[in-house]
């Protein structure tokens, strides 16, 4: 049906004095003897459009139209509200498109985020999630624009795979057979399955991304990844979105430079395009959010060697829950101490012990560490993990052997090291985590439309 977006009506005075039609859902309703006010929102703006109904005039206000959650079509003249200098509509006709009964779940003005997670199909109508998903859309567009402007090729990698990129085995199984007692062995079971071998949902598009980079030079992927990890934390979901560039003829320093440039680009674009949403998040979720983001945009990120970080943590006048020793993977409490207490800005940690990192990372000359990096940010911890990739065929085979991995399923990946191997690298950015950082939302379940977690498939 022909109508004007509420965002357009609020932002442009060109509509003043004109009769237009808008559609939306009732967010609030106030009634008095002579006049009634409805706040309408159609999802195109964080702000609502006020509808004014003169009850002494010819405009009828259907009873159902004043109910929270009702969907309306309103025609009327756009006028200026002189008290707050905003545009509103003097209604001449109101049509109820969808009635909303009294058990509408969003009757309370403020509801806990935990409560709203139980109704993901309804929570998108709240101001919080209106803002979250608008920001998510803007940031996704910024990511594509960043890479496209730099000449990267967008690649779609498969979601069903026969290899475990991380080598950790935390994959969701893909099968058309399901539970069965008809098979004597696992090999017999998978041989009879759809693909004829064991397959799962991809934990990362990196391996296939490297394949593409070896012919296209600079590529990026942007899509879902899946981890069957039994982690019930504020930072983990089983299905999340991943940005993964892969770059040929690049070393670790080049990858760090790309990651910093990308983060700054995304944040700057968000701050420019979503000022109302940023203001909302600062008021409701994180005081000082704007200054935190400006601190990222306007300063160089720190680069700290893992070994030096361990020494900093050992000397810290803090009692950590998890002990700090060289060779141990850093926990969230360690990451946040480094970013929030020591440097107060994003930090690239580099040169991790090879035993705690993936098999494909380039081995450093010391024989103990790999050319890996994690980007840690205040308030969230790790949002990027990357590395220079091991380009030497023999070293890659040895790393797989040391981790007890079979080369089955990795033949094509190994071929890249046989036929014209070059220094190359890349990283993975958890999309939901950068959204958390930019909005102040503390739980990853609140920045994705339908969060998939252990025991939950709403």
Describe what you observe in this structure.
This protein is an alpha+beta fold. It has 14 helices and 16 strands. It has helices at residues 6-11, 113-117, 120-123, 127-149, 186-191, 206-216, 252-273, 275-284, 289-297, 306-315, 332-343, 393-402, 411-415, 431-439, and strands at residues 19-31, 35-41, 49-54, 71-81, 86-98, 153-154, 160-161, 173-174, 199-201, 218-226, 239-248, 302-305, 347-353, 369-377, 381-388, 424-430. The strands form three sheets. It has an eight-stranded mixed sheet.
Write the layout of secondary structure elements.
Layout lengths: L5 H6 L7 E13 L3 E7 L7 E6 L16 E11 L4 E13 L14 H5 L2 H4 L3 H23 L3 E2 L5 E2 L11 E2 L11 H6 L7 E3 L4 H11 L1 E9 L12 E10 L3 H22 L1 H10 L4 H9 L4 E4 H10 L16 H12 L3 E7 L15 E9 L3 E8 L4 H10 L8 H5 L8 E7 H9 L19
Parallel strand pairs: 3-5, 6-10, 12-13
Antiparallel strand pairs: 1-2, 1-4, 2-3, 4-5, 7-9, 8-9, 10-11, 11-16, 13-14, 14-15, 15-16
Helix pairs in contact: 4-7, 4-14, 7-9
């Amino acid at each position: 049906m022909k109508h004007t977006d509420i965002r357009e009506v609020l932002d442009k005075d060109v509509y003043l004095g004109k009769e237009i039609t808008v559609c939306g859902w009732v967010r609030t309703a106030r009634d008095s003897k002579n006049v009634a006010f409805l706040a309408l929102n159609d999802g195109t703006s964080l702000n609502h459009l006020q509808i004014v109904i003169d009850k002494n005039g010819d405009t009828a206000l259907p009873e159902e139209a004043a109910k929270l959650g009702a969907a309306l079509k309103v025609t009327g003249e756009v006028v200026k509200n002189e008290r707050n200098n905003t545009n509103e509509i003097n209604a001449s006709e109101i049509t109820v498109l969808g009635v909303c009964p009294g058990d509408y779940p969003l009757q309370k003005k403020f509801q806990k985020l935990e409560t709203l997670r139980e109704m993901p199909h309804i929570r998108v109508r709240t101001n919080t999630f209106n803002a979250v998903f608008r920001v998510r859309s803007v940031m996704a567009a910024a990511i594509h624009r960043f890479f496209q402007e730099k000449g990267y090729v967008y690649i779609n990698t498969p979601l069903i795979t026969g290899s475990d990129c991380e080598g950790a085995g935390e994959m969701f199984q893909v099968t058309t057979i399901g539970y069965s007692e008809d098979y004597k062995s696992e090999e017999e079971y998978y041989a009879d399955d759809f693909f004829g071998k064991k397959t799962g949902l991809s934990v990362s598009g990196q391996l296939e991304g490297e394949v593409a980079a070896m012919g296209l030079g600079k590529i990026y992927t942007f899509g879902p990844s899946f981890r069957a990890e039994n982690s019930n934390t504020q930072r983990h979901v089983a299905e999340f979105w991943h940005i993964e560039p892969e770059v040929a003829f690049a070393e670790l320093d080049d990858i760090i430079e790309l990651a910093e440039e990308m983060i700054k680009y995304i944040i700057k674009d968000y701050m420019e395009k979503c000022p109302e949403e940023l203001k909302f998040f600062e008021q409701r979720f994180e005081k000082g959010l704007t200054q935190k983001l400006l601190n990222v945009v306007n300063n160089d990120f720190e680069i700290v060697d893992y070994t030096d970080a361990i020494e900093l943590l050992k000397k810290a006048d803090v009692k950590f829950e998890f002990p700090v020793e060289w060779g141990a993977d850093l926990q969230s409490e360690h990451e946040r101490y480094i970013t929030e207490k020591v440097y107060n800005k994003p930090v690239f940690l580099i040169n991790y012990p090879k035993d705690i990192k993936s098999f494909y990372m380039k081995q450093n000359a010391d024989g103990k560490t790999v050319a890996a990096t994690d980007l840690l940010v205040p308030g969230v911890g790790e949002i990027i993990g990357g590395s220079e990739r091991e380009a030497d065929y023999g070293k890659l085979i040895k790393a797989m052997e040391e981790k007890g991995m079979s080369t089955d399923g990795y033949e094509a990946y190994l071929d890249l090291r046989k036929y014209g191997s070059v220094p190359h690298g890349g990283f993975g950015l958890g999309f939901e985590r950068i959204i958390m950082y930019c909005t102040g939302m503390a739980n990853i379940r609140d920045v994705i439309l339908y969060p998939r977690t252990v025991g939950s498939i709403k």
